[in-house]
Amino acid sequence: MSESAIRTAIYNILSGITDIGKVYDYERWAADWSKFINLFKTTISGVDQIRGWEIGRRSAGEKPFTIGLNLRDHGFVIRGYMRVNNASASEKTFNNLIEAVADAFRNNFTLNGAAESHDYIQAVPIDFRVFGNVLCHYAELSLNVHEEKNIARPLPEIFGYSEDIYSGEGMVAPGDLWGSFFECPNSGMAISMNVYLKQVETRTPRIKCAIYSDSGGVPNSLIGYTEEWILTSGFEGWKTLNFISGGNLISGNIYWLIVWADDYFYGYTFTGLTHQLVVAGKAYNSFPVTFPAGSFNNNKALIYCAYRMM
Fold first, then answer.
1. Using the 8-state DSSP alphabet, how is residue 111 labeled?
2. Residue 78 scores a pLDDT above 80
């Protein structure tokens, strides 16, 4: 996909319309208006006349679309000219041509594969213009076209414990805020939390994760939290939950990575630092702004945070 390929597709679609007239794939100009309008002279059904179209681009922009892809928007304009012939009701003929153009693009959503999509033909204005001494019907047909662009985004950074190696497995009780502290090596924005867990019997708890700041070796203030997920039957392994609020991280700071559920699940740990794992009971609801008092041990949870450096 490219601007030139999209422009060519617009030209080909336009040129394929019956009795469309002269078509240019670029904007035409002349110092003299009479010479300009003569660029659109053509013969339709054996009659010489002014009838033509030119294609130009008036805007271009880009925005994120999905992982690895941006969406680039091209604002094309198709200008139409046709000499007025009141005796033959040329105004109706000109408007019929506009409808034919709209039909052609409506039925070709990807412009012969040159684009991802478009927003259909918008005709504003439709009026009259005088070129030299020639009165013409005139229209501007706008066409906003969307093009996918591959982008090379760096892989997210992570901090936490991301190994599949563990020394302990235990049930985490309903309402227990459970997790460990780790140092974040770079400033950035949290993208997701990843936690290793397993279903207990047939229980299907609601589960979500959060990041808390550290104050003197204990979790303190809420930094951000993820979406909620219901643990599915037979699940065991790493689960990724995306952040939906907050998550601003500062280089060198200690953060507590916390998982919370409304029913039992198995959590996994490995030998950690002094007081690296916390458990604090609180009825499952919205994450508390300030972390409640809890108990500690010297393990670390199998949990890590993925973030984008800033």
1. T
2. yes
Cα-based distances in Å from 226 to 105, 112, 182, 193, 270: 42, 41, 18, 7, 24
200 burial (CB, 10 Å; 0-12 / 13-18 / 19+) is middle
Residue 221 tokens, joined: 């203030």
Q: Six-digit token pair at 16?
A: 């394929």
Helix (H) or strand (E) holding 25: none
Question: CA angle, corner 13, sides to 8 and 18, nearest 5?
Answer: 140
Beta strands in 151-298 (DSSP E): 157-160, 168-172, 176-183, 188-199, 206-215, 218-226, 229-230, 236-246, 248-249, 254-261, 265-271, 277-281, 295-297
* Beta-carbon-side half-sphere exposure of residue 281 (alpha carbons within 13 Å): 5
Maximum C-alpha span of the chain: 95
Tell me the per-residue pLDDT of 178-213, one tens digit each, with 9 for 90 and over: 999 999 999 999 999 999 999 999 999 999 999 999
Percent residues over pLDDT 90 in the chain: 87
pLDDT of residue 112: 96
Per-residue model confidence (pLDDT) at position 69: 83
Q: Which domains does the chain have, with CATH numbers?
A: 3-150 (3.30.70.1700), 157-309 (2.60.120)
8-state DSSP, 86: G
**Model pLDDT, residue 166:** 92
How many angstroms from the chain centroid is the CA of residue 265?
34
- pLDDT for residue 171: 95
- In whole angstroms, what is the distance from residue 254 CA to residue 191 CA? 17
Amino acid identity of residue 82, one-letter, is: M
pLDDT at 106 over 80: yes
Between the alpha carbon of residue 300 and those of residues 101, 163, 193, 231, 250, the distances in Å are: 65, 11, 15, 22, 21
Of the candidates 287, 283, 282, 304, the residue with the CA atom closest to the CA atom of residue 244:
287
pTM: 0.55
